Each structure stands twice: as C-alpha cells, then as structure tokens.
Amino acid sequence: MTAFEIFEINGASAADMELFRAWADAEGWNPGDTDRFAFAVADPAGFLVGRLDGEPVACISAVRYGAGFGFIGFYIARPAFRGQGYGIQLWRAGMDRLAGRLVGLDGVVDQQDNYRKSGFRSAWNNVRHEGVPCGVPRSGGGSGVEIVDAATLPFGQLAAYDRRFFPESRDAFLSAWTGLPGRTALAAVRDGRVEGLGVIRPCSGASRIGPLYADAPEVAAALLGRLAEHAPGGEVAVDVPDGNQAATALMSGLGLTPTFEAARMYTGPAPDLDLAGLYGVTSLELG
What we know:
alpha+beta
C-alpha cells in the first residue's frame, strides 16, 4: 500500500453481498444463489467490506448470535490484492466485532495454520460429499416417520430442533433460510415430534443440502433422497462433519464422494452440540 492509497473498512451493502457471492464462486466454494438474503437478516451489520480507493478488494462476515457466540466467514481478499495487508486488517476488524464471544469458523486447508495463530483450535472437519445419490430408500425413514413440507409445521418446533445443533438461537436466519423462494425444506415427523430437518438450495454447481439433521441414519437417508428430487440432474453436495461416522458412512453408501474439506474451529471449547444427529452443516459461511 502506497502513501496515496486509501484503504477503508465499511459495512457491506446489498450490492456488496452479491459481489461477495461472485468472489466465493470464483474460489470454488459453490455458494447458494440466494444465501445472501438469509445472511442479511442473521446480523445486518455483520458483513464488512474493505475498499482500496473506493474499490472493493476484500470481505469478511463476523456474525453475532445471541449474547455469547459469533461466526467468521466469507474471508476473501481478491487475488491481485493478497499479501499486501488488506486481508489482515479486515480480519482484525471482524474479530474485534466479536470480542468477548466464543467464535467459530470453517477454515480451508491452506489457512488453518493462520487461524491457529489467532487462537482457533480444530473441533472436526466438514467434508463435502457430492454426487447423485443412489439406492436411497423410498420409505419415510422408519415406521411411523412421515416426510412433510417443513412450512406446514409450527415454526417454533423447527427452531427448537435447530437449537440441538447450533450454539445459539437464530430464528430470523432460520426462517429466511428455510423459506426463500426456490428452496425446499422438509421435516421428518413421528407422532407430532420433529426427528429430522433438511433444506436444499440451488447453487452454481451441485445443489447444496444444509442443514441435514436426523435422529437416525435412515431418517437422514430418506430426507436426502427426497431433497435430491429437487436438484437439477439429482446432483447434490452435503458438508458432513467427520466426527459423525454414521453420516460419513451414509454418504459413502449412497455413492457420494468427498470433494472439499474445511476444519470447524473455535476460539475456546467446542460447544455442546448433537453431533450424532448432524449429518450436514447449514453453511460454511455462517455456521
């Protein structure tokens, strides 16, 4: 950076959020086509852009959840501006915004050492499995389990179920994430009780499924199969925690193959989540 260049960090606009999506796509992350609309309601002030002489060159999300949790994502510096100090300035601004909270992120392989230097420690790896699922059971996932449109259930049931898999409530985000046009959200229900939840959304590549929650592998398989019916060509991608061995075995059994990996990392002890029921994380950008 020369003495004549001005680097500023500001809150992101709607136009910036669309730009972030294009940058993420260029990195090969395959973001959802409409994810930004749900991101905006999660924490409207949680998205930062770095501008060099007015031109956007870097971005980061630093989203607050509740009183004690935060998540870092969308950490991108454009290739031509890397190694010049802009990214680290944006990183510090994002971390300052989350000061005093437990902070999580999903770190790509080549950045994990840098995150460790900033105090993050690995909890598990999220491994993306992709392909057209084969041999999916046609049943609802077990005796008495029915797969239904999630929109037909009281939202409070969905929000309470989500809290088993996420450290804080995120009702506004979850409502948008499950209800945006072009998406399909399905729930597995037994005797009026939610035993699974899945959302599929269109992307530039394989349609992404996330979250994928289930009380049992057969419920996860049934949800995944029904969701895949809404994917062009049937091709899906699921970011699976490798700490859930049943989930990894399920993806392999359905013919999906690993294509991408990111480490779930935290600045303190990993939160107490129902990892055994977490078959696919919601979003690598917001947790």
